[in-house]
Design goal:
The complex is a heterodimer.
Chain A (H helix, E strand, L loop, with lengths): L3 H7 L7 E7 L5 H13 L4 E5 L10 H12 L4 H14 L4 E4 L2 H7 L1 H11 L3 E3 L9 H9 L3 E6 L5 H10 L4 E4 L15 H11 L4 E4 L5 H8 L4 E4 L1 H8 L3 H24 L1
Parallel strand pairs in A: 1-2, 1-8, 2-3, 3-4, 4-5, 5-6, 6-7, 7-8
Chain B lengths: L16 E2 L2 E2 L5 H19 L1 H13 L7 E3 L1 H7 L3 E6 L9 H14 L4 E6 L3 H12 L3 E7 H6 L1 H9 L3 E5 L6 H14 L4 E3 L10 H9 L1 H14 L5 E5 L4 H7 L8 E9 L10 H4 L1 E5 L2 E5 L24 H8 L4 E6 H15 L5 H13 L8 E6 L7 H6 L2
Parallel strand pairs in B: 4-14, 5-6, 5-8, 6-7, 9-10, 9-14, 10-13
Antiparallel strand pairs in B: 1-2, 3-4, 11-12
The chains are: A alpha/beta, B alpha/beta.
């Protein structure tokens, strides 16, 4: 399958890593959310993940918890997020992914959700509480609709398991940079580098690193060893702090810049 | 019925499932810890030394076996079935929770981990975990919803006195569900040094089967005791169901052997959304806290708010093995309103001199309703899972 995600990784100039940014869908509101995502794409984000908010997000730290809570209070539904995806799709050919937890998708109906997500123009789905052992029923539906399902590895994942996850994941491998929930950190966990080496030894697929990556300095560092860098909480925090579309655009530009500089160094 | 250890049921092809229920729906960083726990648990249960250590602690420290008490006055007053109370309220720390925490804290030590975390609703599991941690020299941190911290202030003090740190949880509905979320987040971050001592038969495999295994002592003792007293098995076993550990503990010895098994959920103030905790009676199948089981949710799959006068039953999920028992007609599930549970607590206190926990009072209320309809030759066992000292303020306020 050669969808938009694979195309993106193949076409990155100068061997630089891709910037994948996250926005909680329908946060702070319907229109603002669309504007924020468009601003991310216009400011140098290579792909976006749109969060479908869940009441009990166990892999998320305080920032994304808060944005999910507010989005739900404002009436966010799976249908609303799918409409948002569809609106974004009209504006871009870059990859758009949906990130959520298993229960809202299960309740929507696995085959209905796969069909409607593909219909809205989503390229991939990321479900952090659905490990490969439990993924069978969903995978069947997502494969049928041509949706990529991105699987996770973390520093606690054994070599054998990395191979297993690698055989299941499509699009890329989501590597968790540290032990912990999503959130803002200043530095990169030093254990990340030997972990990425293990992933490379046991897998052929593109590797994107997320959770705990918040600033340009970290992007530079992580972008040297990965094919993609995922930034979420730092952007959501910018919105919570009231810095709006401009603030988010500025942060995305600085993150994208840090990855481009990397690419140039690679070339020289 | 599974044997509670392998956690597999004949005909079920998937690991960690009770029929269609259970599984491991957790973030990838925890998969390693679940595999480690699974291996350690199998080793421990096969080890004579581990079984001896746990057996000794249950006898000399927790106060097992607990009595099976014939409630003569209650029986006479209700004028029907003979009623027995399995006195888990007499366990050290005041509830059946200690059976599980001693087991899991011993396991924590065998895994070489120095820290346990726990969630708590009423505070009973938190106190039991803090107690076992103090005894076995483990660092202990208990997550407790802010609402529960307020309504169970004495248990917070008790945990702190035992050396545990109590962290109030301010997210979501600020009750048991959110305490579990927060404990899971802590576990993701500290998985190498920490064991999550989950308090009920909920969570990802191998937790439901493991906690069920540590609680099955309730049913094993009851079977012997009731046979000695009555010369036969009882007609009915009644237990309250929040997550479902005391009920699973007493049910497992009797499932498929004749006695009718009845699980009583929190009926709260009504059947509307947010008014109850009747997960099996009014819920649907979904995924919460790592397992596929019945749960309470809205039309978009968001987990529902719940209500119960008893903090321990104020939970929108239930252990996957209960879902299996329900689906296969091996147990029956019903609910009792707040007001009925409060009346039952007062009745048992005045009639038998036993103040039950409001959780257990749900089981008492159901038995009070059914006993008069049954003949005098019939026999009911109620699992009196905890004592009511923690609930005195609530009972007093409700007049």
């Amino acid at each position: 399958m050669s969808g938009r995600i694979t195309t993106m990784f193949n076409r990155l100039e100068g061997g630089r890593a891709a910037l994948i940014t996250y926005a909680t869908g329908l946060f702070p509101g319907r229109k603002e959310s669309a504007r924020l995502i468009k601003a991310m794409l216009d400011s140098g984000s290579d792909a976006v993940e749109i969060g479908l908010p869940f009441s009990d997000p166990v892999i998320d730290g305080p920032v994304i918890q808060e944005s999910s809570r507010l989005a739900l209070e404002n009436g966010a539904t799976p249908g609303g997020v799918l409409e948002l995806v569809s609106e974004i799709r009209k504006e871009t050919e870059k990859p758009v992914m949906i990130m959520s937890y298993y229960n809202p998708i299960l309740k929507y109906g696995l085959s209905c959700f796969a069909r409607d997500a593909a219909g809205a123009g989503a390229d991939g789905i990321i479900i952090p509480d659905l490990p490969v052992e439990e993924m069978g029923p969903w995978k069947e539906e997502s494969d049928r609709e041509g949706l990529e399902t991105v699987c996770f590895c973390s520093v606690t994942t054994t070599d054998e398991r990395i191979s297993l996850v690698s055989s299941m994941t499509t699009g890329f491998m989501y590597c968790i940079s540290l032990l912990g929930t999503t959130g803002i950190r200043d530095t990169v966990n030093p254990e990340l580098f030997p972990f990425i080496e293990r992933v490379r030894r046991n897998s052929e697929c593109p590797v994107a690193v997320g959770i705990g990556i918040s600033n340009p300095r970290q992007c530079t560092e992580v972008g040297k060893v990965s094919d993609g860098v995922i930034v979420g909480s730092a952007l959501v925090k910018t919105v919570i702090d009231g810095k709006g579309v401009d603030g988010v655009g500025r942060l995305v530009r600085s993150l994208a810049e840090s990855l481009r500089e990397n690419g140039e160094t690679h070339n020289s | 019925m599974s044997d509670g250890i392998e956690n597999e049921i004949e005909g079920s092809e998937k690991i960690g499932y009770f029929g269609d229920f259970g599984g491991r729906f957790v973030p990838e960083p925890l998969m390693y810890a679940l595999a480690e726990l699974d291996a350690e648990l199998k080793k421990a249960l096969a080890s004579k030394l581990f079984r001896q250590q746990l057996g000794n602690l249950l006898r000399s420290y927790a106060g097992r076996p607990t009595p099976l008490y014939f409630a003569e006055s209650m029986t006479e007053e209700l004028g029907g079935a003979r009623i027995y109370l399995k006195r888990e309220d007499l366990c050290h720390t005041g509830s059946h929770k200690i059976n599980n925490t001693l087991g899991q804290c011993l396991l924590t030590r065998s895994m070489g981990k120095k820290r346990v975390i726990a969630e708590t609703g009423a505070g009973q599991h938190g106190v039991a975990c803090a107690t076992a941690a103090a005894l076995l020299n483990l660092e202990c941190c208990v997550y407790m919803g802010e609402v529960d911290v307020e309504r169970q202030a004495m248990n917070v003090f008790r945990m702190e006195l035992l050396g545990a740190e109590v962290r109030p949880v301010k997210s979501g509905s600020r009750t048991l569900k959110d305490a579990i979320n927060e404990a899971l987040r802590d576990w993701v971050a500290n998985v190498n040094s920490t064991h999550y001592c989950i308090g009920s038969v909920v969570g990802p495999y191998p937790f439901p089967g493991m906690v069920g295994k540590f609680q099955e002592v309730i049913g094993v003792e009851t079977a012997d005791q009731v046979t000695a007293a009555e010369g036969r098995l009882p007609d009915m076993i009644v237990a309250c169901v929040g997550g479902g550990s005391n009920s699973m503990g007493i049910f497992s010895a009797f499932a498929g052997k004749g006695p009718k098994l009845v699980g009583v959920e929190a009926g709260g103030t009504g059947d509307g959304p947010g008014e109850h905790g009747s997960t099996l009676c009014l819920g649907e199948v979904g995924v919460l806290h790592g397992a596929m089981s019945y749960l309470l949710q809205d039309e978009a799959g968001q987990i529902a708010e719940t209500h119960s006068v008893s903090a321990g039953l104020d939970y929108p999920g239930v252990g996957p093995e209960h879902s299996y028992l329900k689906e296969h007609g091996l147990a029956e599930y019903t609910s009792v309103r707040d007001t009925e549970a409060l009346e039952a607590a007062k009745f048992l206190s005045a009639r038998e001199g036993i103040i039950p926990a409001l959780e257990s009072s749900h089981a008492v209320a159901y038995a009070m309703d059914k006993a008069p309809e049954m003949g005098k030759e019939a026999c009911i066992v109620i699992c009196l899972s905890g004592r009511g000292d923690k609930d005195l303020d609530i009972i007093r306020r409700c007049g």
